[in-house]
Design a protein that fits this description.
Elements (H helix, E strand, L loop, with lengths): L12 E3 L2 E4 L2 E4 L21 H13 L6 E6 L6 H11 L8 E5 L4 E2 L2 E2 L1 H12 L9 H9 L5 E6 L4 H6 L5 E7 L12 E4 L5 H11 L7 H10 L4 H13 L5 H14 L10 H10 L3 H12 L4 E2 L1 H6 L5 H10 L4 E2 L9 E2 L2 H11 L5 H22 L20 H10 L1 H14 L2 H10 L1 H6 L3 H17 L3 H17 L3 H12 L9 H16 L3 H14 L4 H17 L3 H18 L2 H17 L3 H17 L3 H18 L2 H16 L1
Helix pairs in contact: 3-4, 6-7, 6-8, 7-9, 8-10, 9-10, 10-14, 11-13, 11-14, 15-16, 15-17, 15-18, 17-18, 17-20, 18-20, 18-21, 20-21, 21-22, 21-23, 22-23, 23-24, 23-25, 24-25, 25-26, 25-27, 26-27, 27-28, 28-29, 29-30
């Protein structure tokens, strides 16, 4: 209508994505966070027009017959990651589904990559529910990427099968690695080798950070030659030139040449690492050099100021700043609770080489393992009381302000923790191995990381046996059995229980027999033997008499079995007593879990209003503890109850919250 301006307004009360006003309820589509997991490129990026054009061309082909694939191979440090970072930043608008990134080296254990773990991270970033059954994650990922085009960047790929397993349904997958991966040509991939920068491009990179008039053309050319045209090496040397204005380009070139004659060069596919990085290392301050040693010894991918300080690095924050300024470390881009850093593969290779020469290398590794064992113990204890075989440790380390904070630290350090367990096992430090495994239970069970649990606890069982600790053997085998149970591999779970039972006559804590009865009760429930499950959980309860938390947990299990056996009224009586005990002892974890079982009992008895109230209490408490899986169970039950009651508003609110949980 010419000459008129029309506007519409909706007023009322806002509940998340629901607006209620008068007799009108408006449901808005929830805002989905679009992930962008690739870090920004460095401002020194130069050249690579051919490769950027190849990526743009692949983007144009994406969607015609499925996703497009581009593979870049080349030496470490040649700029593969930087190239994709440049492309992803410039073309972000072309990927409405988001930009996903995974460094497969962080997920590689031996020859195999934890592909289900990679997909877990992708699905969380996409705001999609993560199936507990790991095999289902592949289908869920294909479904999630069918609607909107996304970019998936896989770094440090070694095998074509790794790429095929992680292909999105639509969009573009870019893989980078040192292997050629020619087999992917059968999948339509374009395989390109990324060469070192030519003299002109490398000189332009150097001139990009050199001040005007500093360094002749000949000196710059000599520097490029000494760094073999590798952008990573040029940036590392360049950062020190910038930081030391009195150091001339010619002096740096002379130092590099001198190192050639004094050092045994590491000639391999990485290039001459020591020729380039030893001079950089020698110019580091003493704290930064100590941090570099830690990088070379630490078996995991991440370092933090807290880890550095705990292992003896002085002025850890300043040392981290110095290594970041020298392009030897990058800040990890994620939602972890504290700032963490990661070194490039080339830097880690050189750091490992330097660390081999350290007289105190074994002590530094022992300190690293001790830090993670102590910190894991502190985090575990922050998440509530439970049966523990080991004595508390880590009291000299910072604590956690809440249950949720401890869980988020566990999640962020997951790759480090597994690597440390494996390194300790390799050293034969058996006591450290099983103690770490025991503390990792709330992470692996709470966040459903059963692949990690199985891998570490196999080592834990062996270490507990070598350490002649029957209590720990039973603990390790039971936790391993629970992982198999959760994966519905029931025969393997039963096998672990039988092996654990052989140790029961030797244990000093009878509650350990109770945990075996508990897991056996779960297996009975799984195959429909409900009366037998009640019996096994009752035995577990008797073994836990005198332990408040143990009695509450087993009462919770008895109640679940009673409901399954058609005895919901009896279950409520058991739950009332357990709740009173949990209130008296301030058992936060069980005060969260008990209402969900109460809700199921009330539902079985047709008391839907009471069931809704209990499920809502579970959801509220779980949200406060960042126990997303348990909160999702509560909201799933609330949706079912709302549909049975015909309560559309309740169903909408719980579905909305489920979407938010999936985004986490």
């Amino acid at each position: 209508m010419d000459g008129f301006e029309v506007s519409n307004r909706v007023s009322g009360t806002v509940h998340g994505n629901v607006i209620q006003g008068g007799n009108v309820t408006v449901h808005l589509e929830p805002q989905r966070r679009i992930p962008h997991q690739v870090r920004p490129p460095r401002r020194t990026f130069v050249n690579r027009e051919r490769e950027l054009a190849a990526l743009t061309g692949a983007l144009g082909r994406a969607g015609r017959d499925g996703p497009a694939i581009v593979v870049f191979t080349g030496l470490a440090g040649v700029g593969k990651t930087e190239l994709v970072a440049k492309f992803a930043t410039e073309q972000a608008a072309q990927f409405p589904g988001g930009v996903l990134y995974a460094d497969l080296k962080a997920y590689r254990h031996g020859a195999a990559v934890d592909l289900a773990g990679v997909l877990e991270g992708f699905l969380r970033a996409l705001g999609v529910r993560v199936p507990d059954v790991e095999a289902e994650r592949f289908g869920e990922f294909r479904t999630a990427t069918a609607g909107q085009r996304c970019l998936v960047f896989l770094d440090n790929v070694e095998h074509a099968a790794e790429v095929r397993a992680l292909l999105p349904t639509s969009g573009l997958l870019v893989a980078a690695g040192r292997q050629r991966l020619d087999a992917l040509r059968m999948d339509g991939a374009e395989v390109l080798r990324l060469e070192r920068l030519d003299e002109t491009a490398a000189a332009a990179l150097v001139r990009g950070w050199l001040s005007a008039g500093r360094g002749t053309d000949g000196e710059v050319a000599a520097l490029v030659e000494r760094c073999a045209g590798l952008p990573l090496a040029l940036n590392a040397v360049g950062s020190q030139l910038l930081g030391r204005s009195r150091l001339s380009v010619g002096q740096v070139v002379a130092e590099l040449a001198d190192w050639d004659s004094k050092l045994a060069i590491l000639n391999n596919d990485e290039g001459n690492l020591r020729r380039t990085y030893d001079p950089v290392y020698e110019r580091l301050s003493a704290p930064a050099r100590a941090l570099y040693h830690l990088i070379g010894v630490h078996p995991g991918p991440f370092v933090s100021a807290e880890l550095a300080g705990a292992t003896g690095v002085e002025d850890a924050d300043e040392a981290l700043d110095e290594l970041c300024g020298a392009h030897l470390l990058d800040v990890v881009v994620d939602d972890g609770p504290e700032e963490r850093f990661q070194a490039h593969d080339v830097v880690r290779t050189h750091a490992h080489a330097r660390a081999r020469e350290l007289p105190g290398r074994a002590e530094l590794l022992a300190g690293t393992v001790a830090y993670f064992r102590g910190r894991a113990s502190v985090a575990d204890r922050a998440m509530g009381s439970r049966l523990r075989v080991q004595e508390p440790s880590g009291d000299d380390l910072p604590g956690f302000g809440s249950y949720a904070a401890a869980l988020e630290w566990f999640q962020a350090e997951r790759a480090d923790l597994r690597a440390v367990v494996e390194a300790a096992a390799g050293q034969g430090w058996h006591g450290e191995v099983w103690r770490l495994c025991e503390s990792l239970w709330p992470l692996y069970h709470g966040r459903k990381h059963y692949e990690d649990l199985i891998a570490t606890h196999r080592l834990g069982v062996e270490s507990a046996q070598w350490d002649n600790q029957p209590d720990a053997v039973v603990r390790m085998r039971n936790q391993l059995a629970r992982a198999y149970y959760e994966r519905r591999e029931f025969p393997l779970a039963a096998e672990q229980l039988a092996l654990a039972a052989e140790q029961v006559p030797l244990v000093t804590d009878r509650r350990l027999a109770g945990v075996l009865y508990e897991t056996d009760g779960l297996l009975c429930l799984a195959d429909g033997r409900t009366a037998r499950a009640v019996e096994r959980f009752t035995l577990a309860l008797e073994e836990n008499r005198g332990d408040d938390h143990g009695e509450i947990v087993q009462s919770y299990n008895v109640a679940q079995a009673l409901i399954a056996d058609g005895r919901a009224e009896e279950a409520l009586a058991v739950l009332d007593e357990a709740r009173a005990r949990a209130v008296d002892t301030e058992d936060t974890d069980m005060l969260m879990k008990l209402p969900l079982v109460r809700a199921r009992a009330h539902r079985a008895l047709g008391r839907l209003d009471l069931a809704v109230a209990d499920a809502a209490e579970c959801a509220r408490r779980a949200a406060g503890l960042s126990q997303y899986a348990k909160e999702a169970q509560a909201h799933t039950l609330l949706v079912e109850l709302a549909e049975e009651q015909g309560d559309a508003a309740l169903a909408a609110r719980s579905r909305e919250r489920l979407q938010e949980l999936q985004a986490r």
